[in-house]
Amino acid sequence: MTGQLLSLLTPLALLLFVGFADLSLASVEEDEDNYMQEMLTRERYNQVRMPEKSISSTANAQEEPKQKPARKMPKGEMGNDKKTDKITDPTKPVKTPNRKTLKNKKSTLKESNIISEGVAEFNSMTEECPPMGLETLKIDDFQLHASSTKRYGLGAHRGRLNIQAGLYEDDLYDGAWCAGRDDPLQWLEVDARRLTKFTGVVTQGRSSLWSSDWVTSYKVMVSNDSHTWITLKNDSADLIFSANREKEIPVRNIFPLPVVARYIRVNPRSWFYGGSVCMRAEILGCPLPDPNNYYHRRNEVITTDDLDFRHHSYKEMRQLMKVVNEMCPNITRIYNIGKSQNGLKLYAIEISDNPGEHEVGEPEFRYTAGAHGNEVLGRELLLLLMQFMCLEYLSGNQRIRHLVDETRIHLVPSVNPDGYEKAFEAGSELSGWSLGRWTNVGIDIHHNFPDLNSILWEAEAKKWIPRIMFNHHIPTPEWYLSNNASVALETRALIAWMEKMPFVLGGNLQGGELVVTFPYDRTRSQGVTREQTPTPDDHVFRWLAFSYASTHRLMTDASRRVCHTEDFAKEDGTINGASWHTAAGSMNDFSYLHTNCFELSMYVGCDKFPHESELPEEWENNRESLLVFMEQVQSQFSLSDIQVQQAPVITISSCEETQTKSRFNFFILGFRKGENIANHFSKVFTMRSDSLHQNKSFYYRTEQEWNGGQLSERVEANHD
């Protein structure tokens, strides 16, 4: 009896043992991801770093080379070339047919990896789809998901192309999405919230000073319901896309055929040895028309301005400025302020009712852009601004007419054309964070000016102000003027231009953030990287900065997502430059201390080089701010019976002294020798307050008297 029971139990026990073993084997995969069975092969963990033997999509992969980032790539390798529907071998260059062939061609996609449920077969469109907006924040954090994360600061919401980590990592704002485990089961997912034609992926490694993490290959999966996933294939083999070879240079992969779905996942298959599964990404896709979708046209900004919304090469920029000049010859003038290292002219356009002439009581204003060649948005905004002002002036817009008639406006859209040409040739998605930032000799133009702050602060420490020297019109040091000084040709051209024109107010447009910064840009304390360092005119600078930020569509929006690591919206979109990060020799500080021109920096967008499809919205974001900031130069107060007979350039400053011995509270610039400014409304800018509506004593001096320290005459000024 016992033997019979044993004979019956033995097969049953063996069956149960095998069943439990099989369940335990399955649970390993289930625990990693409870609904990835359809898309992942059953692999052991010890096979993590082994390359997979399948057809690799290398022909369509683009990486900007490190030594020659601006080289032209073969047609078959260029990711922005138009693709056809028929691809026989994705590892070979693709031959693009002519437009006539594409127009007559009516073939239906027949590909096994197109989603069968809920997605009809889709005829490929010839144009390449633009970025969906991970970098520009059009894709919000709730649309990004991941299989796992190391910690919150490395979550899926940080997996955006070109996102930057702060100086201090291991906080809430790190520089990539990093998986919680280093295995091939991890993924980064984007929910497009509507059917979208996906055409490609751009990837980067982790932004970090201390870590080396990047993905070297990946698969792509798509889904309509986020449960059933289909891997992109070539015939019967999974497509393995070649990814990055280092952490900063973006690599773009274009799919052999577009695929229509709502969800898309990037599944890393291999990564840098010794690193972790970390990546930043951008998805290329075209949303399909769906008027019933809740998110259709949600928060979409549409412009009504008929302007040239595209990126312009150097020649195209020059041609556009010429067209504007021909359209409005009575109010525009084109000139150049110098040349770049490569011999490209630094073009400027003047907009005024009497171009080429300085008028009594008419202030001089300037906008510059492109000091960092890869920060392209500011350049295009100035090209749009000159078009807009010309067209609106011709149409009789009274606001624009008043601005043009009462102000002499100068626009320099490209201060660093050499750097821009490098970034422009690479393209908006492949230029990365720094390609083209510096001049051809590696100089950062914006921080290439003489450090007058240290000269001023040393003089104040020695109590030389105002007996020996003044705290304005500080001369340029002799060493800086020598030929051996490391000064870019572009910087020298800017300084000569700033000294020639009696500018009152200026702004330089930059990119990569949403904030307005104002002087000082250098901290006063030695060795301190961040410190509030106000000027004696801090209240004026704050008002000017707020005038731009408050009229921008996004800068002061407390609900908006931060671009990288700093939440500037809580400070109304403005910040003292030194309290953000210290920088000696900035254009803003030099302009303030050397020429008495109030200069601010406007960081006009999170994306330094947005795709041209984003330009209409970026124009709407900044248009009102650009106009309002210019209008600040029209703030007025009157002076009583002042005759100017010998001063070449008059500067009037308050004699009221502060703790820093300041005589720098109000300025009136732009009056020439022999001009009578009695009863003129002199153009200055100041924040009105009750303390200003009173009589105050002022001094005025010639430039020689400023330098010689002699007091000329005392006059009275009344504020309106």
Automatic annotation (TrEMBL):
GO terms for molecular function: metallocarboxypeptidase activity; zinc ion binding. Residues 74-89 have a biased composition (Basic and acidic residues). Its main location: secreted. Pfam families: F5_F8_type_C, Peptidase_M14. The keyword DNA damage does not apply. The keyword DNA repair does not apply. Residues 127-286 form the F5/8 type C domain. PANTHER family: INACTIVE CARBOXYPEPTIDASE-LIKE PROTEIN X2, PROTEASE M14 CARBOXYPEPTIDASE. Belongs to the peptidase M14 family. This is Uncharacterized protein. It comes from Gambusia affinis.
